[in-house]
Specification:
The protein is mostly helical and 210 residues long. It has one domain: Up-down Bundle (Four Helix Bundle (Hemerythrin (Met), subunit A)), CATH 1.20.120. It has 5 helices and 5 strands, in the order αββαβββααα. Strand 4 and strand 5 form a beta hairpin. Helix 1 packs antiparallel against helix 4 and helix 3 runs antiparallel to helix 5. The N and C termini lie far apart (52 Å). 35% of the residues are buried.
Length: 210
């Protein structure tokens, strides 16, 4: 199927943000922003779980229970992501790379299903990775599924309210093109956060002489 012309710039933006974040997490080089490649090692489990301030929300073993101010661990399997029912804690807890990456990958996976899949997946079905390598692979899988869903959307679908039935957002009340834009900004801003946390982790290690 030919990509609708008005979807093409959003798809290109998604591809750019996806590739940049993947390189930022896994290496061997990342886009420095000025057209040159900067060497970067793959994200370690220590970075993935690093809590830079007290009281972080993160990904945890289900048997350990939720973290501070969280009331449950979202997802299926042995690991879950800290969460709480609405109204959420205020001020919002600071979140680790593990939390942010799990949130991003879950969102991509579920939105893909609710656009071009069975329209049945919920947060209770999603399995969160308990290590960096598994989490990075899950991000790639979710991003690829979302991209495939976009490629299957005809031009008329972009104006269709509720074309995506994702149950954890405003998707049933929004034209699909607005959801595509929203997913891009989620990828861009969480990708930037993850990159910054990697920078801070390594700056701290250098300062400590590690």
């Amino acid at each position: 199927m030919t990509v609708p012309p008005r979807l093409l710039p959003l798809l290109e933006q998604f591809d750019f943000a996806r590739e940049r974040l993947a390189g930022r997490m896994a290496g061997p080089v990342m886009d420095s922003g000025d057209g040159t490649d900067t060497p970067v090692g793959p994200m370690t489990d220590a970075e993935y779980f690093w809590e830079p301030v007290p009281g972080c929300w993160s990904v945890r073993r289900r048997g350990d229970g939720p973290g501070p101010r969280a009331t449950s661990l979202a997802g299926a399997g042995d690991w879950g992501r800290d969460t709480a029912a609405y109204p959420h804690p205020w001020p919002p807890p600071f979140t680790t790379i593990a939390w942010r990456l799990s949130h991003l990958s879950e969102m991509l996976t579920l939105r893909a299903d609710h656009t071009a899949g069975d329209h049945r997946l919920t947060r209770d079905d999603y399995r969160t990775g308990g290590d960096a390598a598994t989490a990075m692979a899950a991000f790639d899988t979710g991003a690829e599924a979302w991209r495939k869903a976009l490629l299957g959307a005809a031009d008329g679908a972009l104006d269709t309210v509720g074309y995506c039935t994702y149950p954890h957002g405003s998707d049933p009340e929004e034209p699909f093109i607005d959801i595509v834009w929203w997913v891009n900004q989620e990828l861009l801003h969480h990708g930037a956060e993850i990159g910054l946390l990697r920078d801070l982790y390594h700056a701290r290690a250098r300062a400590d002489g590690r």
